[in-house]
Write a structure and sequence with these properties.
There is one protein chain. Helix 19 runs antiparallel to helix 24 and helix 23 packs antiparallel against helix 24. The protein is built from 25 helices and 24 strands. It is flat and about 150 Å long. By secondary structure, the protein is of the alpha/beta class. A 6-stranded parallel β-sheet has the order 3-2-6-7-1-8, sandwiched between helices. It has a 5-stranded parallel β-sheet with strand order 11-10-9-12-13, sandwiched between helices. It has a 5-stranded mixed β-sheet with strand order 19-21-22-24-23.
Length: 884
C-alpha cells in the first residue's frame, strides 16, 4: 500500500475562499466517480460554502468534553475504518481538544496519508512555523497554532487561493466572512489593507519558492541540463578588478527589464586557493550586488570558463555578463581568454554579454614577487645545507663509489633539503655547487673540469634543472602561503569593518580603537580642517600621546580627501599595510559624517517637535479658551440681569455652570503653561503609565450623554502618554465624531492592543471624508466642506494630531466599513505593562481551550462586551471646534 497524496489549498488570510476551493475540487472528483468523504469541514455559516457540502458524505464528528463544554473534532478512527479514496480535512493547523488521539490536526492527516488515503486540506500562510515572527511583526498577533514547514513542503500539490486585499475587505464588509457584529473590529485590526498586502506577498513568495524547488527537482530527476528560461537569471563573472562594479550595475539594469529578474555575482578562485584579486574590491562588489537585491557567490575551480558555465547552468541562468579582457594584446598568444571561451562554449541557451569598461587592455596588474618570508633561522639552515652539505657528502662518498646515478640522487636530495629549508637562493647555490663536485670527483675524466661522455653532460644538466625547478616551486609555495594568509586576514578585517559600519554598530572612537589594535599602534586620531590654510583639529582620538595638530608629526598618516587625515603613532607601517589602512580611513570619515548627521537629525527633530507644540499651543489659546469664557460670561450676565427673577434652583444651576467653566479653564491653563515650558525647551511632556479607561471617560464631558459608547477592555496594556494631552486629543476627536454622527447612532470609542502599541478608534457613521481630503482635515484652519461660520475655525483635529505626535504617537483617518469615518489614535504601550502582558499570555497559552467553531483568526481582537459610558462632568454646550 502506497502513501496517500496531500493537496493543500493555501491562502494569505481567512476568507479568501480556501474551503470553497477545496469543496469545489471534492465535487468535481465525486462527479468523476471518486470515493470522496468529508472528515471535517467548517463552513462558518457561509451559505455558498454550506451549499457545496450538499451531496458529499460526511463522517460524523466525535464530541469531546473539555472544561464543561462539548466540542466536536474529526473522528480519525471512523475515517480510517471507512477508508475512502479522498478525505477532506479543513484547517490543517488546528489544535485538537485535549483527550484526542493526536495533539494537532496535521498529525491526524499524517496518519491518513500513511494509511494510503489522499487528503485535501486548507492552510493560511500565517500558520507556517517559520513565518511566526514575521507575521507577528506585521499584524501584531502571535499565532499559537502552527504547522511545521516540512509538513507543508512534503505536500504533493500546493494550490494558492488568492484574492486582492480590496476584494477581501469588500467581502467582509458585505458580511460574507464574519458576522456583522465582528466586521468592524476585524477590518480595523487584522484585516487592514497593509496587513493583507504583506500577508499576500508572503504567500506569493512562499509558493514561488516551492514552484522553483519543484522545477529544480524535476530537472534533476530527468537529467535536464538545458536551461529553461522560466525567469531571467543573470550571472555576473567577477575577477576582483575595478570593472566588477560596472558589470554588476549593467546586470541589474538587465534584470529590471524582466519580471522577477535575479542577479547572481560569482567570483571563481583557482583550486589552490591563491589569487591576486583585491579583497577590498571584492568586499565592495559584494556590498553593491546585495544592495541591488542580488546574491554573491564564491566558487573554486581550476578551469575558470568551465566553472563559470557549470555554475550558470546549475542556477538555471539565462544570461552571463562578463567584462572585456584586461589583458594586453601580446598576452592573447597564450589563449583566447575567458570571455571568448565562455561565449564559444555557452551554447544556444545562454546569452553572453561582453561589457566594455575603462580597464580594457590595461593589464591585469599582477603583484610583484616578494621574498619567501621563511625566517632568518630557516634561511641560515638552508645555506648551511646547500653549501656545506655537498662538501660533507663528497668526503663521505670518497670512501666508496656507489655509481654516478646514485651520486646525483644524493646531491639532488641535498638540493631539495636546501629548498625546503631556505628557499630559492640556497637551493640554486646547492645545485650549482653540487654539479661542480659531481663533475670534478665523479664524472670521467676524474679530478678534471671536463666531461668525456656526452651522456654525463646531459645528466648534470638535468640535475641542475631539477634542482632549480624544485627550489622555485618551494619558494613560490612559501610566498603564496604568506600571501594567502595575509589576504585572508585582510578580508576578515574588511568584512568586519564593512559589516559593523554599514549596520551603524561602530562609532568613530570604537573604529579608531580597532585601527590601533589591528596594526599594533600606540595611538590613532582623525584630523580635519576647514580649508587649505586652516589649522588642523581633532575629530576623534584613542590611545596614548596621539597627534592632535599636524599629520606630518605622526609615524603614519593616510589622507582622506583634501581636508581630513587618519594619523597613527608607534611605528612606521610597510606599504602593503596601507591598503587596509586606507579602507579604515574612509570608513572613519563615514562614521564621523554619520555622527554629525545624527546630531543634525536630533536638532531637526527637536525643532519639528517645537513647531508642533507651537501650532497646538496657538490653536488651544486662540480657540479652547473662548468656549469656557463664553459660558462663564453668559452665566454671570444672566445672574446680574435685573429683568429676571431667578429661582434658587436656576441660580444654583448657573453657579454650577460658572464653577464648571472655571474648573475647565484652570485645567486648560495648567496644560497651556506646561505646553509653553515645553515649547521653550525647559520641560518635556509628562509621559507616564496610564490606563486608558481612566482618561477616556474624562474626554466625554463635552458631548451629550448617551452619544458615545466606550469599549475599553480591562485587559488592555497601560499606555505611555501625558494624560492631559491625551484627554484633549480624545475630546477633540469624540466631539468631532458626535457632530457628524447621525441622530440616534452613538459614536464607538474602542481600543485594542497590537504588538507594542495600543490603538484607540473613534468610529462614526456620518458622511465620511473622501480619500483626497483625509490629510487636509488635519491642517490648521481647514474645515471639510463649506461649513458655515460658527461651526469652528478648523483647529480641533490639528490640535489632536499635534498633541498625539508630541507624545510619540500618530493619528490617521480611515473609512468606516459601511460608511463613516474612523479616527485611529496609535499610542505606545508602556514597557512594563507590555512585558507583564506577554508573560501572562505565555503562562496561560498551554491551558487555553480550543474553540469549537472559530469565526475569526487566532488572536484577532474583536469588540468586547459594551460597557456603559462612565459619566463625566457636565459642561455647557460648546461651538464646534474641529476640522472635519
Amino acid at each position: 500500500m502506497g502513501r496517500g497524496r496531500l493537496r493543500i489549498h493555501l491562502g494569505a488570510a481567512p476568507g479568501v475562499g480556501k474551503t470553497y476551493a477545496m469543496l469545489s475540487e471534492a465535487q468535481r472528483r465525486v462527479e468523476r466517480g471518486t470515493d470522496c468523504v468529508v472528515g471535517f469541514v467548517e463552513h462558518h455559516d457561509r451559505p455558498r460554502t454550506r451549499a457545496l457540502l450538499e451531496g458529499l458524505e460526511q463522517i460524523p464528528r466525535r464530541e469531546l468534553e473539555y472544561r464543561g463544554a462539548v466540542l466536536p473534532e474529526m473522528d480519525l478512527d471512523a475515517v480510517l475504518a471507512r477508508r475512502p479514496q479522498v478525505v477532506l480535512v479543513d484547517e490543517l493547523a488546528h489544535t485538537n481538544v485535549p483527550g484526542s488521539r493526536n495533539a494537532k490536526r496535521w498529525q491526524d492527516v499524517e496518519e491518513l496519508l500513511t494509511a494510503g488515503i489522499d487528503v485535501l486540506s486548507t492552510l493560511n500562510i500565517q500558520h507556517l512555523e517559520s513565518l511566526g515572527d514575521v507575521v507577528e511583526s506585521i499584524t501584531g498577533v502571535r499565532q499559537q497554532e502552527t504547522v511545521p514547514d516540512e509538513v507543508v513542503r512534503r505536500a504533493d500539490q500546493t494550490e494558492l487561493v488568492d484574492m486582492t486585499p480590496e476584494a477581501l475587505r469588500r467581502r467582509m464588509a458585505h458580511g460574507n466572512v464574519y458576522q456583522p457584529d465582528k466586521v468592524d473590529a476585524a477590518l480595523s485590526n487584522y484585516f487592514r489593507p497593509g496587513n493583507l498586502t504583506a500577508l499576500r506577498e508572503l504567500a506569493l513568495l512562499w509558493v514561488a519558492d516551492r514552484v522553483d524547488e519543484y522545477l529544480q527537482r524535476y530537472r534533476s530527476e530527468h537529467d535536464v541540463s538545458a536551461i529553461w528560461g522560466s525567469r531571467e537569471r543573470i550571472v555576473v563573472g567577477l575577477t576582483g578588478g575595478p570593472e566588477g562594479r560596472t558589470l554588476i550595475r549593467r546586470a541589474a539594469r538587465l534584470a529590471e527589464k524582466g519580471a522577477g529578474g535575479e542577479v547572481l555575482a560569482v567570483y571563481i578562485a583557482c583550486g589552490d586557493g591563491l589569487t591576486a584579486a583585491s579583497p577590498g574590491e571584492l568586499a565592495e562588489q559584494r556590498t553593491l550586488v546585495e544592495s541591488l537585491g542580488g546574491t554573491f557567490h564564491h566558487v573554486v575551480g581550476d578551469d575558470i570558463p568551465a566553472a563559470l558555465l557549470a555554475f550558470a547552468r546549475a542556477a538555471n541562468a539565462t544570461q552571463i555578463v562578463l567584462g572585456s579582457s584586461r589583458r594586453k594584446t601580446w598576452q592573447y598568444v597564450f589563449g583566447p581568454g575567458v570571455g571568448a571561451t565562455v561565449a564559444r562554449d555557452s551554447g544556444p541557451d545562454l546569452d553572453v554579454h561582453i561589457v566594455t569598461h575603462e580597464a580594457i587592455a590595461k593589464g591585469r596588474g599582477l603583484p610583484v614577487a616578494r621574498g619567501a618570508r621563511l625566517g632568518r633561522s630557516r634561511v641560515a639552515w638552508g645555506w648551511a645545507v646547500g653549501v656545506a652539505g655537498p662538501a660533507v657528502l663528497a668526503v663521505l662518498l670518497s670512501a666508496f663509489d656507489p655509481g654516478l646515478a646514485n651520486d646525483m640522487l644524493l646531491f639532488l636530495s641535498l638540493t631539495v633539503a636546501a629548498a625546503l629549508l631556505g628557499g630559492l637562493r640556497p637551493a640554486l647555490a646547492s645545485a650549482a655547487f653540487g654539479s661542480l663536485l659531481l663533475n670534478y670527483f665523479y664524472t670521467p675524466p676524474l679530478h678534471r673540469w671536463s666531461v668525456s661522455d656526452p651522456k654525463n653532460i646531459i645528466a648534470i644538466v638535468i640535475f641542475v634543472a631539477v634542482g632549480a625547478a624544485v627550489a622555485s616551486v618551494v619558494d613560490l609555495a612559501a610566498r603564496r602561503t604568506h600571501q594567502a594568509a595575509r589576504l585572508r586576514a585582510e578580508s576578515e578585517i574588511l568584512s568586519f569593518l564593512a559589516g559593523n559600519v554599514l549596520r551603524g554598530e561602530t562609532g568613530l572612537e570604537e573604529l579608531l580603537e580597532r585601527v590601533r589594535q589591528t596594526f599594533g599602534m600606540e595611538s590613532a586620531a582623525l584630523l580635519e580642517r576647514a580649508g587649505d590654510v586652516e589649522p588642523w583639529t581633532c575629530a576623534g582620538r584613542t590611545g596614548t600621546g596621539p597627534v592632535l595638530e599636524r599629520p606630518d608629526d605622526a609615524d603614519v598618516d593616510v589622507p582622506v580627501g583634501d581636508h581630513m587625515a587618519l594619523v597613527l603613532t608607534g611605528r612606521v607601517l610597510p606599504a602593503e599595510d596601507r591598503r587596509v589602512l586606507g579602507a579604515f580611513a574612509a570608513q572613519a570619515a563615514v562614521a564621523l559624517d554619520r555622527r554629525r548627521l545624527r546630531a543634525e537629525a536630533d536638532r531637526a527633530r527637536t525643532l519639528a517637535e517645537g513647531n508642533r507644540i507651537r501650532t497646538a499651543l496657538l490653536a488651544a489659546v486662540s480657540h479652547d479658551l473662548r468656549t469656557p469664557l463664553a459660558g462663564i460670561k453668559a452665566a454671570v450676565s444672566s445672574l446680574r440681569s435685573e429683568d429676571v427673577d431667578w429661582s434658587p434652583e436656576d441660580r444654583a444651576e448657573l453657579l454650577e455652570g460658572i464653577e464648571g467653566g472655571a474648573d475647565r479653564l484652570d485645567h486648560l491653563v495648567g496644560n497651556l503653561l506646561d505646553m509653553s515650558r515645553l515649547h521653550t525647551g525647559t520641560v518635556t511632556p509628562l509621559i507616564r503609565e496610564v490606563d486608558l479607561d481612566e482618561v477616556a471617560p474624562m474626554a466625554l464631558g463635552g458631548v451629550p450623554e448617551g452619544s458615545v459608547t466606550l469599549d475599553i477592555p480591562e485587559t488592555l496594556p497601560m499606555v505611555a502618554v501625558d494624560p492631559g494631552l491625551l484627554e484633549r486629543a480624545m475630546a477633540n476627536l469624540i466631539e468631532n465624531a458626535v457632530k457628524y454622527a447621525p441622530a440616534g447612532t452613538p459614536v464607538l470609542v474602542a481600543a485594542s492592543a497590537l504588538a507594542d502599541r495600543v490603538e484607540v478608534r473613534v468610529v462614526d457613521r456620518g458622511p465620511g471624508v473622501p480619500d483626497d481630503a483625509k490629510d487636509r482635515i488635519f491642517e490648521p484652519f481647514q474645515r471639510y466642506g463649506d461649513a458655515p461660520r460658527g461651526a469652528g475655525v478648523g483647529l480641533g483635529l490639528a490640535v489632536a494630531r499635534g498633541f498625539t505626535e508630541a507624545m510619540g504617537g500618530s493619528l490617521n483617518a480611515d473609512d468606516t466599513p459601511g460608511g463613516g469615518l474612523t479616527m485611529t489614535l496609535t499610542l505606545r504601550a508602556a514597557a512594563t505593562a507590555a512585558t507583564a502582558e506577554t508573560s501572562a499570555t505565555e503562562a496561560t497559552a498551554g491551558t487555553r481551550a480550543p474553540t469549537a467553531t472559530p469565526t475569526a483568526p487566532v488572536g484577532l481582537v474583536g469588540p468586547q462586551p459594551v460597557r456603559p459610558a462612565e459619566p463625566g462632568p457636565v459642561r455647557p454646550a460648546e461651538p464646534e471646534r474641529h476640522s472635519s
